Structure formats: structure tokens, C-alpha cells
């Protein structure tokens, strides 16, 4: 089964729901606390932020980075991110992350709550893209839901990829890709791809720091 239609619906969900995107951060203290972990992470130099959404993480990255390039596929959330982060060191780009290839390398590639939206069959290619975006000595840093978060979702069966059903305030419904990675399995999978990785649980989430397979500068 092809996951293209599922990914198209996922993008439509985030475009239509841009105004609701920040609601979980307003309602959940654990998410607000999670934002503060940026100060504990090895974020430095030129940073590439994938799937930046409305920019909840972007200003925190900018405070630690020389520059930030923040990419998302949805123009509606990018408009909110630009308003939230009026910094001359931050550049926002609209691009489909499954097609876009970074034109340069970065010291840090960061993505929060994005890995769970990547269909499993696309993961090796995704990680190859991340590796190609990293400068020698660079690190990928990622944050996402752990398996326990599945209890809060309306999980769908018989889809082209693990998926959940999301509803917006207007009653519209959208399928999204939602993969609840087990940290141990994810560690094994990345190790098999040649990455050096450490993933630690934080409440119901996890934080990963990974270095790509050795490559020539």
C-alpha cells in the first residue's frame, strides 16, 4: 500500500489546524517543561530544525545557535512561527521534508515530534538525509512521544503506515502517520544504520542524541 495519500492528509491536517497547534503546550505542563530541556542539549553552531511547526522550539534553539534554518511543509504554521521568532539569525523555509534536500551542512539537526510522523519504510532515507545535512562532528537531536502516548490517540488499523485519526474544532477528521517508537528498538534500528545514538526517556517522551556513520568531510 502507498503512503502518499496518508502523508497528503497529514499535511492538510496541520495546515487546517494551525490555529489549534499550540493548544497542547498551553494545556499540558509536561510539554512546557519539556521545552526547557533545550538548555541541557548540545545544540550549537548552525542549526537545521525540521518540521518546526509554529516555532515552539525555534526561539529556544536560536538562543543557543549561531543561526537557525527552520523548515516546515505548512505555510500556515510557518506564519505563526515567523511571528513568534522575529530574529535576524533565523530563516524559515516552506518545503516537503520527504522531497527537500538541504543545500548545505549544519552543526546540529533538530526535530521535535516529527520522527513519529515518518512512515517506517521512509525512515532509512530520512536518516540518510539527516546524515547528509550534518557537518563533520555534527549531531542530530530529536524529541518525540514514547509508546505510552498511544493511549491518547485514536489508532487506525489497515493503513499504509501506522496511523491515527485527528479531529479539528470544526469537526473535520484527518488521518496522520503516528509511529510510537520504543527507545530500545529505535536505538537498535539506528545502530544498524551505522549511527551512534543515546536515547533517554523523559516522562512519557524520549530525547535522542545521535551521530551519523563516519563520513569524509
TrEMBL record:
Family matches, as PANTHER family: TRANS-ACONITATE 2-METHYLTRANSFERASE, TRANS-ACONITATE 2-METHYLTRANSFERASE-RELATED
The protein's name in its UniProt record: Class I SAM-dependent methyltransferase
Stored InterPro entries: Methyltransf_25, SAM-dependent_MTases_sf
GO BP: any one term: methylation
Annotated keywords: Methyltransferase, Transferase
Keyword Transferase on entry: yes
Stretches assigned to the Methyltransferase domain: 47-138
Methyltransferase among keywords: yes
Classification of source organism: Bacteria, Bacillati, Actinomycetota, Actinomycetes, Kitasatosporales
GO terms assigned for molecular function: methyltransferase activity
UniProt cross-references to CDD domains, sorted A to Z: AdoMet_MTases (cd02440)
Amino acid at each position: 500500500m502507498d503512503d502518499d495519500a496518508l502523508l497528503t492528509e497529514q499535511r492538510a491536517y496541520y495546515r487546517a489546524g494551525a490555529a489549534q497547534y499550540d493548544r497542547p503546550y498551553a494545556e499540558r505542563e509536561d510539554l512546557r517543561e519539556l521545552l526547557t530541556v533545550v538548555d541541557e542539549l548540545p545544540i550549537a553552531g548552525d542549526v537545521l530544525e525540521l518540521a518546526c511547526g509554529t516555532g515552539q522550539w525555534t526561539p529556544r534553539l536560536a538562543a543557543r545557535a549561531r543561526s537557525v534554518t527552520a523548515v516546515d511543509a505548512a505555510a500556515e504554521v510557518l506564519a505563526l512561527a515567523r511571528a513568534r521568532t522575529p530574529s535576524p539569525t533565523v530563516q524559515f523555509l516552506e518545503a516537503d521534508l520527504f522531497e527537500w534536500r538541504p543545500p548545505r551542512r549544519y552543526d546540529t539537526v533538530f526535530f521535535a515530534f516529527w520522527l513519529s510522523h515518518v512512515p517506517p519504510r521512509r525512515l532509512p532515507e530520512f536518516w540518510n538525509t539527516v546524515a547528509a545535512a550534518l557537518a563533520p562532528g555534527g549531531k542530530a537531536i530529536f524529541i518525540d512521544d514514547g509508546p505510552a502516548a498511544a493511549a491518547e490517540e485514536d489508532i487506525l488499523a489497515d493503513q499504509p503506515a501506522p496511523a491515527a485519526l485527528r479531529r479539528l474544532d470544526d469537526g473535520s477528521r484527518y488521518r496522520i502517520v503516528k509511529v510510537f517508537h520504543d527507545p530500545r528498538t529505535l536505538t537498535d534500528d539506528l545502530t544498524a544504520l551505522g549511527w551512534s545514538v543515546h536515547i533517554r526517556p523523559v516522562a512519557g517522551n524520549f530525547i535522542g542524541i545521535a551521530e551519523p556513520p563516519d563520513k569524509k568531510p
